[in-house]
């Protein structure tokens, strides 16, 4: 699947929205809005797979500013995306995680692995 910046990658009855934005031609931001749990994690996986399938060497930022909840299935998707991105030489980081989501990422060790994008990037 070919993805275009500004493209809405996912909409569902579960209210998960995923949008792709090209930032200055040197970074792709995947903005996620809604709860990421067992019911919606498949959509996030499909969207990240589609984005990463087209890339080599481009950094990817997963913006979680509009994610109020992230469970273990969402953590698993982020870990898989990180591994797939690393195979394509695409650094993948998370950004703007709310305190509850950030805590989940810290407790699981995922934040230390993926890293947190600097504020205002």
UniProtKB/TrEMBL annotation:
This is Anti-sigma factor antagonist. Residues 30-121 form the STAS domain. Belongs to the anti-sigma-factor antagonist family. It holds the Pfam family STAS_2. One of its GO terms (molecular function) is anti-sigma factor antagonist activity.
């Amino acid at each position: 699947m070919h993805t275009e910046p500004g493209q809405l990658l996912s909409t569902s009855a579960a209210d998960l929205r995923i949008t792709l934005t090209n930032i200055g031609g040197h970074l792709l931001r995947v903005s996620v809005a809604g709860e990421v749990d067992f019911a919606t994690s498949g959509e996030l996986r499909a969207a990240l797979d589609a984005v990463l399938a087209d890339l080599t060497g481009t950094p990817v930022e997963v913006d979680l500013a509009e994610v109020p909840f992230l469970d273990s299935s969402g953590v698993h998707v982020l870990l898989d995306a990180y591994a797939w991105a690393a195979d394509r030489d695409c650094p993948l980081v998370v950004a703007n995680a709310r305190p509850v989501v950030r805590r989940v990422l810290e407790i699981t060790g995922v934040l230390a692995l993926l890293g947190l994008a600097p504020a205002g990037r």
